[in-house]
Hints:
Number of helices: 11
CATH architecture of the largest domain: 3-Layer(aba) Sandwich
Number of strands: 20
Shape: globular
Number of domains: 2
Strand content: 25-35%
Amino acid sequence: MEHLEFNRNLLSFLQQSPTPWHAVRQMSQQLDQAGFTELDEREAWQLEADTGYYVVRNGSSMVAFRTGRANPVSAGVRMVGAHSDSPCLKVKPNPELRRKGYFQVGVEVYGGVLLNPWFDRDLSLAGRVTYLNDAGEVVDALVDFERPIAFIPSLAIHLDRDANNNRSVNAQTDLPPVLMQVGDEDTTRFDEVVRTQLIKQQPKAGVSKILGYELNFYDVQPGALIGLNDEFIASARLDNLLSCYVGVQALIAANGEQPALFVCNDHEEVGSVSAEGAQGPFLKSVLDRWCGADHKTRVIARSMMVSADNAHGVHPNFISKHDENHGPIINQGPVIKVNHNQRYATNSRSASLYRHISDELGLPHQTFVVRSDMGCGSTIGPLTAAMLGITTLDVGVPQFGMHSIRELAGTRDSYTLYQVITAFMQWPQVN
């Protein structure tokens, strides 16, 4: 079935994307294969109509777009946004710890991590490394240890009898992973461990010295289709690489008649304030160069943004955590997210267009509103809406275990979102 094949390809993408840098590299390769041309922010751009382009910033954020056969000044741009980062444990700059003959590394919690599921998992390490090569040049490279190299062991219940009733996690003292056993005279340096791995992966790189790194641990267990009828997809980083995959596949599949754009920002999980985050100038800069600063206001007035980020499905064991009329069910359609305090950017117009497109395709949709006595999360939607002044919709597939090391979503929902987003990128009028 088409939706299962779509999810198998999604699983392959997730497996090859343990970090934002790896995810952007995967998407860049997919765009290359689809005939898109990479642009360099440092150079002049000569854009042509009816052509696909993409530009990468910091290796971890991307804007890809089709100029379309229609003029963006009169037709507007159909924009879709997602984020490339996920909550995780990142290695500190000076991480070496030696305790009782065990070599460990210090980690920093990145984003709103659900910490307990990180214990007792087979962990590997991946990210970006900056090094000095033999020619004296400063070079970036991606590294992935791929195999299990670390473990964060739980404290046995015999030593913590209250563990099932009242266990808290101290991010400083409880989380350093164990990498190996060492002798009393051990002088292992973590940067040399990284250098050795980089040389294994790139034997001709000529790695003289590691100058810096941005590395995070991840669970090596592959994602899977699960459930007696393959109803679910289980994997790390569904929030929000699922939406990234949907967005880039929809852009590739769009017919090219209408101008369309996909932006994938880093750093959403920590507030989006960075050069490549949604509160940074990346998207605005690309639009200025594409549409022209003088025309951009007219373009934005005819455009719409869909911020695609996963939603909280109603948990059957915790039904009371949801508003009784707004508890999204997995595999009953993507979720329009509404918050009148502007934690989501949805308004009646943007929600209505999404519902209309879904209805025209005969596809389901749902609505989420947080309980009035609970706080609400947010997305890049309000940030982009405020930055550009663009009509925006927040939508996403419902999932369980958000911000856990392993999350669960529905196989039908991801494919439904892809179908609607593809149609949106081709829709004749969006605002």
